[in-house]
Fold this sequence. Notes:
Layout lengths: L1 E5 L3 E3 L10 H9 L4 E5 L6 E4 L25 E4 L7 H7 L3 E6 L5 H14 L4 E5 H5 L1 H7 L4 E3 L3 H13 L10 E2 L18 E5 L2 E5 L1 E2 L10 H5 L4 E2 L2 H9 L7 E4 L8 H14 L4 E3 L4 E2 L5 H10 L4 E6 L3 H6 L6 H12 L5 E7 L6 H12 L4 E6 L13 H10 L22 H18 L3 H11 L7 H19 L3 E3 L5 E3 L4 H12 L4 E2 L4 E2 L1 H7 L4 H8 L1
Parallel strand pairs: 1-3, 1-6, 6-7, 7-8, 11-14, 14-15, 16-17, 17-18, 18-19
Antiparallel strand pairs: 2-5, 4-5, 8-9, 10-11, 12-13, 20-21, 22-23
Amino acid sequence: MKVAIFNHPFTDFYHSPQRMVTANLDYLGKIIFPHEYLCFDVVKKLKKSIPLPKQLKYLKNYLVYDQSHYSFFHNYYQYGEVNHFSHKRFEQFCPEVIIITSFAYCYFQGLKNMITYLRKKFSVPVIIGGNGPSAHPLYYFDNSGADYVVVGPAEISLKTLLDHLQKGEMNIQIPNVYSQQRDHSIVMNQSYPFEPFFNIKKKNIQLQITRGCPKNCTYCSVKLVSGQYFLKTSLIKLEAAIADLPPAIKHFNFEDDNLTFYKDYCQDVIQIIKKYYPQSTFSFENGLDFTTLTPEFVDFLVSQGLKQWNISLTSINLEILNQTKRNYQKQTFLNVLKEMEKSRLLIIVYFICGLPEDNSENILKTLYFLTEQPVLLGISPFYLVPGIKIESSTTEKLKQLKEENLESDLAIYYKATSFYPWGKINSEKLVTFFMLSRFINAVKRYTEVDWFEWKDMLAGKTAISKEKGVDFRTQSGIISSFCQKRILYLDKNNQYQAYPLDSIILNNFFHQFEQGLTIRNQGFCFTDDFLQRKLKIDSRTIKEATN
């Protein structure tokens, strides 16, 4: 059977190239073998600025021209077009079925637009699946225009569905498939064979060799998509795949949800990679569970070529951690952090802002805690995914949304970048925490030497090179912000303006800084005492920096 496999356009402030890759389409093609397939990437490198949607008008005042390292998003974009593919190639292939994979529920409208376009051009059955449809399958079936919705891992049911269609069978009742029969049997607690995923980009490779996660965090949607089992690629199959990769590969980035849960397996995987690519480095940019990191395991990862640490923390508030089933304490993290510090590698720690039961005080405590650690702050605004366990805590918010918006407009609020208040913290506060985290990270970029170089450039003792230009403007913005106790940005006219952020949160931060809060990186502590005594910032310096 001939199958055309598509992705679809979507809109957002930004997108992650690691998640939106053509390799995802090819991966589906391998699953449906021996059915013949052809991939059509309608997103590839197509990006255009579009007006901010009316539903997000509350974010308009933050979309400003900012020359600093800590800026907010500058524009809203559309990625891809429904007609951005070779129609001639499609018609020559003459597919009998179309498959469209959708990355997230928040991009529902782009998927619907894709289906509408294809329906006008080509009259063949349409199958959809992926993270979004798996999270809310009945909604997708009733509203997207698709003929079939595949829930969960495609390995379980996609090829079986195609086999039935190839036979001309219409009365199809398959587990994990929504169809007109309306007799939907969902089976997510079964094992299934899967191939390791590889996406090669020049000298870097993105890979996933496990599926699922053994944990049960209430805000996570992994099990809606990957099923209840935590599955691992066989080492024999993995080594065969690694041995067949191009020799130019220099870096491996694991996209697995919890590869380090089974330490022995993880070590075996890395040793296989080092056998064929002894000089390569690797990273876990999807985030590591720090509770899996013993001192010995930390030493092993560093010795084998770990490039940076990406650590998932969520919060330091014990009540929030227990509610979300994270089940650890701050001291556990501090013990592991001491071991990671020894490596002198970059450490990025992710925490969640805006969980339904969280509040501003808890967020500030987590933010201040990380500010004083030698780490970068990876703030993750909470966004709802239909079907996750924590959804029951958002009943009132969902009711309010449905009263104020058309059903078709709701998905846009399910983006992290929409800063929708699913809990007790309003949008202004969510944006403020986001901007404050970026501001703190900007401070952490610089050493003591950098600050004295900045002062020399300000005084005209050294020239401001093109490479140093953004740093100079960022550092000037940082100093001016501390003096005015607001987060300032440099506009197109080289004038400093203040972001319209929550004054209570900002006043609290700048007060804490004056009272001794330390902004620490791995080699330097930026403090109020440093500003006043060593850098000796006076009114004249500030005026020059502001101008």
